[in-house]
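Entry 14. Ran structure prediction on the chain below.
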Amino acid sequence: MHTSPFENTIWVLTHLADADGALEPALPDARATIEFAEGRVGGSASCNRFTTSGPLTEIPDAIAITMMMCPEPAMEQERRYLGLLPLIAEVRLEDDTLVATDADERDILVWVFDEGPEDG
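Output, structure tokens:
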């Protein structure tokens, strides 16, 4: 099994591409994440949990997801997020930021490393 250099890490979505391909900020009250564990990718899509059977750059069109309903605009962000995941062609690490690009080398998703809950 191929092990990701990001194994056992969690990243929080900060930006995602809109319909025109421009990056816009993720909703602060609809936390979306990506998690790497056991050679698979999963996380929170804003409302529901998702999981895949392979590494980040090989996410299939079929992503297993829970099916809870949430209020808008969280559901819209979730639809966009899940629609962008299979388009990932490459991922690069920039300091504490993970940036995913599509086949046309456009940035489509940006996450920051989740350092866990703050003390205090």
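The first helix runs from residue 74 to 84. Will compare against last week's run tomorrow.
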